Amino acid sequence: MQIHQVTPDEWRLWRDIRLEALANDPAEFGSTLTREQEYTEDDWRERIVGGLNLVALDPDAVGLVGATSKPGDLYLYSMWVRSSHRGQGVGEALVRAVLAWAAQEGWERVRLRVWKDNLPARKLYLRLGFVDAKEPEHMEYLVS
User: Fold this and answer.
1) Are the CB atoms for 6 and 54 separated by under 8 Å?
2) Whole-angstrom Cα distance, residue 141 to residue 144?
3) Contact in structure between 137 and 113 (CB atoms under 8 Å)
Protein backbone atom coordinates (compact mmCIF):
# COMPACT_ATOMS: atom_id res chain seq x y z
CA MET A 1 0.00 0.00 0.00
CA GLN A 2 1.14 3.50 -0.82
CA ILE A 3 -0.07 6.85 0.57
CA HIS A 4 -0.24 9.33 -2.30
CA GLN A 5 -0.76 13.10 -2.18
CA VAL A 6 -3.31 14.07 -4.82
CA THR A 7 -2.60 17.08 -7.03
CA PRO A 8 -5.22 19.21 -8.79
CA ASP A 9 -4.37 17.44 -12.06
CA GLU A 10 -5.41 14.17 -10.40
CA TRP A 11 -8.86 15.51 -9.52
CA ARG A 12 -10.53 12.43 -11.06
CA LEU A 13 -8.71 10.15 -8.60
CA TRP A 14 -9.99 12.22 -5.66
CA ARG A 15 -13.49 12.51 -7.15
CA ASP A 16 -13.86 8.79 -7.78
CA ILE A 17 -12.84 7.64 -4.29
CA ARG A 18 -14.82 10.45 -2.63
CA LEU A 19 -17.98 9.51 -4.56
CA GLU A 20 -17.44 5.86 -3.66
CA ALA A 21 -17.18 6.85 0.00
CA LEU A 22 -20.39 8.86 -0.17
CA ALA A 23 -22.20 6.03 -1.99
CA ASN A 24 -21.12 3.33 0.47
CA ASP A 25 -21.24 5.21 3.79
CA PRO A 26 -23.52 8.20 3.25
CA ALA A 27 -24.30 8.76 6.93
CA GLU A 28 -20.64 9.35 7.79
CA PHE A 29 -20.21 12.61 5.89
CA GLY A 30 -21.51 16.13 6.01
CA SER A 31 -22.34 16.06 2.31
CA THR A 32 -24.32 13.88 -0.07
CA LEU A 33 -23.58 11.80 -3.12
CA THR A 34 -26.17 13.70 -5.15
CA ARG A 35 -24.62 17.04 -4.27
CA GLU A 36 -21.06 16.03 -5.09
CA GLN A 37 -22.01 14.22 -8.30
CA GLU A 38 -22.96 17.65 -9.60
CA TYR A 39 -19.50 19.13 -8.99
CA THR A 40 -17.64 20.22 -12.10
CA GLU A 41 -13.99 19.61 -12.86
CA ASP A 42 -13.26 23.12 -11.57
CA ASP A 43 -15.10 22.34 -8.31
CA TRP A 44 -13.02 19.20 -7.76
CA ARG A 45 -9.76 20.96 -8.58
CA GLU A 46 -10.64 23.76 -6.14
CA ARG A 47 -11.24 21.25 -3.37
CA ILE A 48 -7.74 19.90 -3.80
CA VAL A 49 -5.88 23.25 -3.77
CA GLY A 50 -4.69 24.71 -0.49
CA GLY A 51 -4.72 21.68 1.75
CA LEU A 52 -3.59 18.11 1.92
CA ASN A 53 -5.48 15.39 0.05
CA LEU A 54 -4.24 11.83 0.40
CA VAL A 55 -5.37 8.53 -1.05
CA ALA A 56 -4.27 5.05 -0.11
CA LEU A 57 -3.39 3.01 -3.19
CA ASP A 58 -3.42 -0.81 -3.19
CA PRO A 59 -2.96 -0.62 -6.24
CA ASP A 60 -6.29 1.22 -6.79
CA ALA A 61 -7.56 3.89 -4.40
CA VAL A 62 -8.92 2.19 -1.26
CA GLY A 63 -9.10 5.14 1.14
CA LEU A 64 -8.84 8.88 1.43
CA VAL A 65 -8.35 11.69 3.90
CA GLY A 66 -8.10 15.44 3.58
CA ALA A 67 -6.76 18.22 5.78
CA THR A 68 -7.42 21.93 5.48
CA SER A 69 -6.90 24.99 7.61
CA LYS A 70 -9.71 26.38 9.72
CA PRO A 71 -9.04 29.39 11.94
CA GLY A 72 -6.05 28.41 14.07
CA ASP A 73 -6.17 24.67 13.43
CA LEU A 74 -5.64 22.02 10.84
CA TYR A 75 -8.90 20.19 10.26
CA LEU A 76 -8.89 16.52 9.19
CA TYR A 77 -11.89 15.58 7.02
CA SER A 78 -13.21 12.98 4.56
CA MET A 79 -11.50 10.07 6.30
CA TRP A 80 -12.74 6.86 4.70
CA VAL A 81 -11.48 3.34 3.92
CA ARG A 82 -13.13 0.88 1.55
CA SER A 83 -14.80 -1.90 3.56
CA SER A 84 -12.59 -4.57 1.93
CA HIS A 85 -9.52 -2.87 3.41
CA ARG A 86 -10.73 -1.98 6.89
CA GLY A 87 -8.79 -3.43 9.79
CA GLN A 88 -5.60 -3.61 7.71
CA GLY A 89 -3.92 -0.38 8.83
CA VAL A 90 -5.08 1.80 5.92
CA GLY A 91 -6.89 4.31 8.11
CA GLU A 92 -4.00 4.47 10.53
CA ALA A 93 -1.53 5.08 7.71
CA LEU A 94 -3.70 7.88 6.30
CA VAL A 95 -4.12 9.62 9.66
CA ARG A 96 -0.43 9.21 10.55
CA ALA A 97 0.47 10.84 7.22
CA VAL A 98 -1.74 13.83 8.07
CA LEU A 99 -0.19 14.11 11.54
CA ALA A 100 3.34 13.95 10.11
CA TRP A 101 2.48 16.65 7.58
CA ALA A 102 0.92 18.79 10.33
CA ALA A 103 4.13 18.58 12.38
CA GLN A 104 6.26 19.36 9.33
CA GLU A 105 4.10 22.39 8.49
CA GLY A 106 4.17 23.71 12.06
CA TRP A 107 0.55 23.13 13.05
CA GLU A 108 -0.10 22.97 16.79
CA ARG A 109 -3.42 21.15 16.71
CA VAL A 110 -5.38 18.86 14.40
CA ARG A 111 -9.15 18.72 14.85
CA LEU A 112 -11.78 16.48 13.34
CA ARG A 113 -15.45 15.66 13.59
CA VAL A 114 -16.56 12.09 14.14
CA TRP A 115 -20.07 10.93 14.98
CA LYS A 116 -20.28 9.60 18.54
CA ASP A 117 -21.68 6.26 17.33
CA ASN A 118 -18.85 5.68 14.83
CA LEU A 119 -16.94 3.49 17.27
CA PRO A 120 -14.33 2.06 14.87
CA ALA A 121 -13.25 5.55 13.82
CA ARG A 122 -13.27 6.85 17.39
CA LYS A 123 -11.09 3.89 18.50
CA LEU A 124 -8.62 4.65 15.71
CA TYR A 125 -8.37 8.32 16.63
CA LEU A 126 -8.02 7.56 20.35
CA ARG A 127 -5.28 5.01 19.63
CA LEU A 128 -3.40 7.66 17.65
CA GLY A 129 -3.56 10.21 20.46
CA PHE A 130 -6.69 12.22 19.73
CA VAL A 131 -8.86 13.25 22.67
CA ASP A 132 -12.44 14.46 22.87
CA ALA A 133 -12.71 18.20 22.38
CA LYS A 134 -15.12 20.52 24.18
CA GLU A 135 -17.31 20.76 21.10
CA PRO A 136 -19.68 17.78 20.71
CA GLU A 137 -18.56 15.08 18.24
CA HIS A 138 -15.15 16.69 17.82
CA MET A 139 -11.73 15.32 18.69
CA GLU A 140 -8.33 16.97 18.66
CA TYR A 141 -4.67 16.05 18.57
CA LEU A 142 -1.92 18.26 19.93
CA VAL A 143 1.04 18.15 17.58
CA SER A 144 4.35 17.84 19.41
Assistant:
1) yes
2) 9
3) yes
The pLDDT tens digits for 10-33 are 999 999 999 999 999 998 888 999
Q: Which CATH class is domain 2-142?
A: alpha beta
Higher pLDDT, 29 or 38: 38
Q: Pick from 25, 105, 39, 115: which is nearest to 73 by CA?
A: 105
Query: What's the pLDDT tens digit per position in 46-75?
Result: 999 888 999 999 999 999 999 999 888 999
The full DSSP string for 68-133 is EEETTEEEEEEEEE-GGGTTTTHHHHHHHHHHHHHHHHT-SEEEEE--TT-HHHHHHHHHTT-EE-
- Domain ranges for the chain: 2-142
pLDDT tens per residue, range 86-109: 999 999 999 999 999 999 999 999
How far apart are alpha carbons 20 and 28 in whole angstroms?
12
